[in-house]
Amino acid sequence: MAARMMNGSGTKHRSKIGGKENGKAGGKTGSKSGETVAKSINFGPLATWIGFNLRMAQESAFQAFSRRSLEIGENPGRFATLTLIARNPGISQTELSQAAGRDKSSLTPVVEDLVRRGMVERKRMRDDRRTYRLNLTAAGKKTLTQLTRCASQHERVLDSVIGARDRKRFIEILKKIAAEVE
Amino acid sequence: MAARMMNGSGTKHRSKIGGKENGKAGGKTGSKSGETVAKSINFGPLATWIGFNLRMAQESAFQAFSRRSLEIGENPGRFATLTLIARNPGISQTELSQAAGRDKSSLTPVVEDLVRRGMVERKRMRDDRRTYRLNLTAAGKKTLTQLTRCASQHERVLDSVIGARDRKRFIEILKKIAAEVE
DNA sequence: AGAAGTTAGTTGGATATCCAACTAACTCGC
DNA sequence: GCGAGTTAGTTGGATATCCAACTAACTTCT
Predict the structure, then answer these.
(1) Is the confidence at residue B142, as pLDDT, over 80?
(2) Close Cβ partners of A100 (under 8 Å, ≥ 6 residues apart)
(3) What gap in Å lies between CA B158 and CA B169, rounded to an integer?
(4) Given an 8 Å threshold on Cβ–Cβ distance, is B170 in contact with A173?
(5) Residues A53, B174: contact at Cβ < 8 Å?
(6) Nearest one of B99, B153, B146 to B119, comparing CA atoms
(7) For chain A, where are the E strands, in sequence order?
(8) pLDDT reported for residue B73
(9) Which of A23, A56, A164, B52 has the greatest number of beta carbons closer than 10 A?
């Protein structure tokens, strides 16, 4: 899981989102000299809208984490899944999907992959043979440890960008949005 | 564009992200009576990590906007694209993709669709025949107006969740993350 | 106990996205 | 003024995700 995961690690050249309306509607930067002057884009209302900035921030953060976890040869998307299984041994796929904010059908291939790679063990429940119980194997725990280290480093970067003073409030707001918006 | 758009409008049942570690590692909620007690999930470190919460918030917000814009029969994903073209008449596809934070190849089908539906006009540049100039048509402007109304309502909801006091700082932080994280 | 309803997980069809590789068109250096 | 390099946009192949529809297994109601 973890955010429409798996963007790869493309280096995207984003323009900074201009705070101010720069009067002159967009338009072809002169570039007399031949070098391409970074054209300043007018974002209009997007610049001050929460939805758009939320998306840009999320993707930026996810990309960074993606790169980091690919360095250790793991899929960033597996991180939330592994953590949730570790913390909730015997969790079912449906519960897992709800916790991770994904459709249960999205988890089918993810869990299959984790099982195939020996990270997760999957047993039918005794008393309800529709349901699986998921548990981490030793290998899964080891991988999770590595991924967690990655994630901690990543979090430290985010922390430094946000600043200790605002961090708590920032997360509260994110949680509130996740919980309260429709 | 606007966030790995087009999730449809699925009603996802997310568990709230528990702030506190609930000691007892996950585990099978009793459900004596037969009714399914909403199992309380242990999110472990995810609960306090920015990346995960950023994702959950972003998706929640996007879903809400998605539903709203589908009500007026438009694709939420087109919103940022139309806005950027409106504000930057004659913008090229590459510039547009950078501004929207998407790969230029992702824009090919989007722009095609907008042109086909008569929202956007696309002309080769005189002096550089590789490049297109994009402009909104009257129909495009009309659609954008509707979408903008939608988005304003959506923003108002987000505003009320965040609270006027924190809003400015919140957006600043989002911008900072988008700009500074790798 | 049997039919009707509900739930867990899978399958199928669709979309949005990425990256790498491509083509056509431009620019530069000599 | 021509070949090497660069840039704009498209194409192809891959992944992650969604929703709707399905099957198998439970539960409930009469």
Answers:
(1) yes
(2) A1, A80, A81, A84, A107
(3) 14
(4) yes
(5) yes
(6) B146
(7) 120-124, 132-136
(8) 83
(9) B52
Q: What span, in angstroms and rounded, lies between the C-alpha atoms of A32 and A26? A: 17
Instruction: Confirm or reject contact between B55 and chain A (CB < 8 A).
Output: yes
**Which pLDDT tens digit goes with each residue over B56-113?**
999 999 999 998 888 888 888 899 999 999 999 999 999 999 999 999 999 999 999 9
Q: Number of residue pairs across A and B with CB atoms under 8 Å? A: 267
d(CA A62, CA A177): 18
* A55: nearest CB among B2, B48, B158: B2
Burial of A11 (0-12, 13-18, 19+ CB in 10 A): exposed
By the 8 A CB rule, do A160 and A105 touch? no
pLDDT at B16: 65
> Which nucleotide, over all strands, has the C1' atom closest to the CA of A110?
D16
* CA–C1' nearest nucleotide, residue B5: C16
Q: What is the predicted pLDDT for the residue at A6? A: 38
Q: Which two tokens stand for residue A170?
A: 């920032």
Q: How far apart are CA B74 and CA B118, in angstroms?
A: 14
Question: Is strand D less than 7 A from the beta carbon of A117?
Answer: no
Chain A residues 114-143 with a CB less than 8 Å from chain B: none
pLDDT tens for chain A, residues 1 to 182? 333 433 333 344 456 665 444 333 333 333 333 333 456 899 999 999 999 999 999 999 999 999 888 888 888 889 999 999 999 999 999 999 999 999 999 999 999 999 999 999 999 998 899 999 999 999 999 999 999 999 999 999 999 999 999 999 999 999 999 998 76
Question: Is A46 in contact with B84 (Cβ distance < 8 A)?
Answer: yes
Question: Between B42, B148, B167, which is nearest A87 by CB?
Answer: B42
